Amino acid sequence: MTGRGLLALSLAAVLAACGTEVSLEADSEPIDLALVSEVPVTIATIPGRDPFRIVIDTASPLSAIDALGGTTGRTRLGEMRILRPDDPNVVRAILHDLVVVQAPLFQAGTGTPVAVAGVLGGDVLSHYAVRFQYGTGTATMTFTERDYDAGKPESNDELARAGLTVVHSHVLGGGAYDLGGDVESYGGSRLTVPACAVIGGRAVELTFLVATGHGPLVLGRAAAERRLGRAVPDGEADRLYVPAVAGGIAVLERGSLLPPGTSALAIVGDEHGSTSQSRSDFGGPCTQLFRHQTDLEGLVPPTDCPLGPSVGLGPNNSRIGAAYVQLCADAAVGYAVISDDEPLLASLRAELRPHLPEVDGLAGTEVLRHLVTELNYTNNRVILSCADGAPSCFSRPRTSFPD
User: Fold this and answer.
1) pLDDT tens-digit readout, 346-385
2) Same domain flag for 229 and 358
3) For residues 272 and 319, what is the distance between their CA atoms, to the nearest angstrom?
4) Cβ neighbours, 10 Å, residue 330
5) For residues 55 and 34, is the Cβ–Cβ distance under 8 A?
6) Which helix (H) or strand (E) holds 365?
7) pLDDT at position 355, please?
8) Closest among 324, 402, 381, 318 to 156, alpha carbons compared
9) C-beta separation of 143 from 24 below 8 A
10) In this structure, are 150 and 89 located in the same domain?
11) Are residues 228 and 106 in the same domain?
12) What is the CB neighbour count within 10 angstroms for residue 67?
């Protein structure tokens, strides 16, 4: 581990059924990751094993290691060392007293998948604020605690004044799973974001799980048909690989969510999540987006990034513009459509009901690579901004407009 700005972050994280306190030791610099088959991976070591590849997956509620010798179930590790992906002699972080699941693990990614033998999932990440940033073939992950970072904006108002998009997102989920006859419970670690997709004058409201361990924007078939305005044909266009599923999942269709022309995808900071007023006072993410852009700001966007129509200021004549970050047609966000019956989606939806009526898909690297994304689990929010050099992205913080 480098000696620059050594930061020891500890937490009283009682992981389900094991009562183990986990602690993280890391320096203050971003942790380098490699993007392989569109997913962020690096190298890890644990006592008694050779270095192995792990995927960083916020969509996985559990951290896991491959079950060597057929042994399955939960186990406690004295430590797991996170190494540089290009130099396994450099330790970038150490997790102490980590509880993981031992289970058969296979591959991650799309197209040509990458073999993985470990997953760093939401059960660990959800105790921190974790920032992800992407480059060409690379990514970084930074553990941060804003409460202890002197000079960094902390409150939602401070973040807005700093120009950042804050999306309120309660950490949801939790449940139980059966592994070899043993039923184990796990806590909530799911962060979702409301979105508005616009193409050819049509606006569709969607809800996505933030999923760093997936490459494309993964859509259920029904959500894809609403977004595309047509039926998705039967057949197999590709495979989507997740570590716990041998052979991967059938992809019905691949394509670009934002075709050339007038199309856009926006993640919107739902004002309903920041006040005690009812949703009917604000409308859904598309209504809030259009109200901010058109009725309050009179924004003139890039010609290939459409705005919606005037929707009025609502029953309370609100002068608050919801925060948003918007990707335009040049962003060329790749999507993959899977069956709504696939356990990846079906089990996620069952886990999040009744808090969310339906999750439409998983926002992976194809969305996140345009953004700097901080998953601020401890404060129930996602903090977004456009990545440097992302010309097809523009954003606005939550804004109060004068009467």
Assistant:
1) 999 999 998 887 899 999 999 999 999 999 998 999 999 9
2) yes
3) 14
4) 15
5) no
6) helix 365-368
7) 87
8) 381
9) yes
10) yes
11) no
12) 18
Write out pLDDT tens, residues 221-232. Answer: 999 999 989 999
Please answer whether residues 29 and 2 qualify as being in contact, where contact means their C-beta atoms are separated by less than 8 angstroms: yes
Which phi and psi angles does 250 have, rounded to 5°? -70, 130
Distance, in Å, from the CA atom of 338 to the CA atom of 291, rounded to the nearest integer, reads 33
Token readout for 199 is 């193409």
- Strands 39-45, 73-84: pairing is antiparallel
Q: CA 329 to CA 264: how far, in whole Å?
A: 6
Q: Does residue 100 surpass a pLDDT of 60? A: yes
Pairwise CA distance, residues 401 & 292, whole Å: 9
* Distance of alpha carbon 112 from alpha carbon 278, whole angstroms: 46
Q: Whole domain around residue 393: which residue ranges? A: 192-400
CB atoms within 10 A of CB 178: 8
Do 259 and 311 belong to one domain?
A: yes
| Rg of the chain (C-alpha set) | 21
pLDDT digits (tens, 9 = 90+) for 290-317: 888 877 777 655 555 766 666 665 555 5
Structure tokens at 47: 């006592």
Residue 19 pLDDT grade (very low, low, confident, very high; cuts 50, 70, 90)? very low
Residues 31 and 150 in one domain: yes
User: What pLDDT is recorded for position 12?
Assistant: 28
H/E stretch holding 318 = none
Looking at residue 85, its pLDDT comes to 95
Report the CATH number at residue 31.
2.40.70
Within this chain, do residues 353 and 259 fall inside the same structural domain, yes or no? yes
What's the rounded Cα separation, in Å, for the pair 135 and 140? 8
Q: Is pLDDT larger for residue 275 or for residue 227?
A: 227
Query: Among all chains, which residue has been given the structure tokens 């972050």?
Result: 9
H-run or E-run covering 90 = strand 87-103
Helix intervals (H) in 42-179: 122-125, 156-161
Give kind and range of the element (H or E) at residue 351. Answer: helix 343-352
Assigned domain for 62 exists: yes
